[in-house]
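Regression test case RT-17, inverse folding.

Input:
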């Protein structure tokens, strides 16, 4: 008898099935599974009939009604939220015509908040809505278990891919190579989309490698590249991968990093690069479900180019080809 290996259930597929079921059990305008990334609420899976929400949309956590449901041990049912001051303020700010809300947290076994299972719509709740309280708790519990299984499987896959990337290293710097970087983005795209992970791509381009090579020789240029690689690996302590993607261009994929964390990483990199008297231009792009990791890379590259162009008048006027302007 042959053992059949089955893949663990995927969180996004299970989420879609749960929302379809809830649509029948409690037919309000929108059902969604969301992710709380520490700053924002991201709509991962959406079953929407009247509010125009889509997967990838997001709001600040402070502007979400779910912030008040995650502290409760039972589902929150709100009929006529306009009558409750804290909900009314959120509805007015959002501009959405919401007359009902249901919310319940999705937490992992260690008690960490992942997101919510919630619904809201333009009409009042059905009279039988609260009789489905135990159903919502059960479905949320099942989703949380599937989430953990999927996260564990993803962690194992990432570990295997990290071992494989050892063969995709740049010989000069020891960082991930361009081919390894491209495979990394392909591997991570589905995971970022499935879990709504916050993250970013950072691009760093050396401004003066050609001058170093021309004036001091290619051995000095190689030392220059190794120096920037050391700076990047010393500064970036957050989860992420650093790659050399061109002759004088480096890229960083930051995972599980909110906008605030990304801002902090970029600021630290700028300070470290300036302190080491290296001239480099930098830009970053935040990940979004709608644009994907490729979109974050394009945004980072465009921002880096703007940074580089902003230095050109200074460099041309002073004649200092290695000046650092941040």
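Golden output:
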């Amino acid at each position: 008898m042959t053992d059949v290996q089955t893949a663990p259930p995927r969180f996004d597929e299970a989420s879609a099935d749960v929302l379809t079921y809830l649509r029948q059990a409690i037919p309000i305008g929108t059902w969604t599974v969301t992710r709380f990334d520490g700053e924002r609420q991201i709509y991962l899976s959406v079953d929407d009939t009247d509010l125009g929400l889509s997967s990838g949309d997001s709001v600040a956590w402070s502007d979400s009604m779910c912030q008040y449901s995650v502290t409760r041990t039972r589902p929150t049912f709100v009929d006529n939220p306009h009558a409750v001051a804290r909900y009314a303020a959120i509805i007015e700010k959002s501009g959405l015509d919401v007359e009902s809300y249901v919310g319940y947290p999705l937490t992992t076994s260690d008690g960490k908040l992942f997101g919510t299972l919630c619904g809201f719509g333009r009409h009042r709740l059905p009279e039988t809505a609260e009789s489905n309280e135990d159903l919502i708790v059960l479905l949320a519990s099942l989703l949380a278990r599937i989430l953990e299984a999927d996260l564990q499987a993803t962690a194992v896959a990432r570990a295997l891919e990290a071992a494989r990337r050892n063969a995709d290293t740049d010989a000069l710097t020891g960082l991930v190579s361009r081919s390894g970087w491209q495979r990394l983005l392909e591997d991570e795209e589905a995971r970022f989309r499935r879990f709504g992970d916050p993250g970013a791509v950072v691009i760093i381009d050396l401004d003066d490698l050609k001058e170093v090579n021309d004036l001091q020789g290619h051995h000095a240029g190689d030392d220059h590249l190794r120096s920037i690689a050391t700076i990047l690996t010393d500064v970036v302590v957050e989860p992420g991968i650093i790659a050399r993607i061109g002759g004088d261009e480096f890229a960083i994929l930051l995972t599980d990093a909110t906008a605030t964390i990304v801002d902090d990483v970029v600021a630290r990199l700028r300070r470290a690069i300036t302190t080491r008297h290296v001239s480099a231009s930098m830009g970053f792009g935040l990940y979004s479900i709608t644009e994907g990791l490729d979109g974050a890379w394009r945004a980072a590259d465009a921002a880096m180019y703007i940074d580089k162009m902003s230095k050109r008048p200074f460099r041309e006027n002073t004649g200092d080809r290695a000046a650092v302007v941040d």
